[in-house]
Amino acid sequence: MKRHSNRHQLRLITEISITPLLDLVLILLFVFLLAAPLLKADKSMLPPTPQAVAKVVTAPAETLTLVMNHDQSVTLNAAMLARADLPASLMQLAASRPGLGIQVRIHRDLSVQQLVEIMQILETAGIQKTAVTTHADEP
User: Fold this and answer.
1) Secondary structure (DSSP) of 11-47
2) Count of beta carbons in the 10 Å neighbourhood of residue 114
C-alpha cells in the first residue's frame, strides 16, 4: 500500500476577500456625502475676520469722573450735580470738548437699571468713550 503525503493539503490561501473592504469604502463614501454640505463654508456662520472687526481706538483726550453714590447723588469731577441737570451738562461738555472720556463710578449696591440709565444719558450726549467701575462706601 502506498503512503499518501499530507503536503498537498498544506497549501497557502492566496485569495483575499474584498467584501469587508468594499463595505468599509461604501460606508465612508456615504458618510462623506452626507457630511459634505455641512462642511461648506457659509459666510454668515464664520466668525468675523480681524480686519473686519478692527477699529481705530484712540485714548480719550480728557477723562472726567462721574460718580453715582449710594443715595443716588451724582458728582461730575467732584462737583455735585442735580440728576435732572446731568443730560444738559454732559451735552454741553461733549460739544465743547471733542474726544471726551467719562469714567462712571457707580455704587455697588445700586441696581443695574440705574447704570443703564446713566449710560443712555451718556449716549444721547454723544460721549462714546466710557469706562465703568463700581465702588463701595469710603470709610
Assistant:
1) --------HHHHHHHHHHHHHHHHHHHHHSPPTTTSP
2) 13
What's the predicted TM-score (pTM) here?
0.56
Q: Decide if 64 contacts 77 (C-beta within 8 A).
A: yes
Rg (CA), the chain: 37
Torsion of CA 17, 23, 28, 31, to 10 degrees: 180
Q: Which helix (H) or strand (E) holds 133?
A: strand 129-135
Three-state SS string across 64-83, please? EEEEECCCCCEEECCEEECH
Q: What is the pLDDT of residues 105-115, one digit of tens each?
A: 999 888 899 89
- Hey, what's the cell of 88? 444738559
Q: What is the pLDDT of residue 15?
A: 79
Domains along the chain? Answer: 62-135 (3.30.420)
Mean pLDDT in residue range 89-114: 89
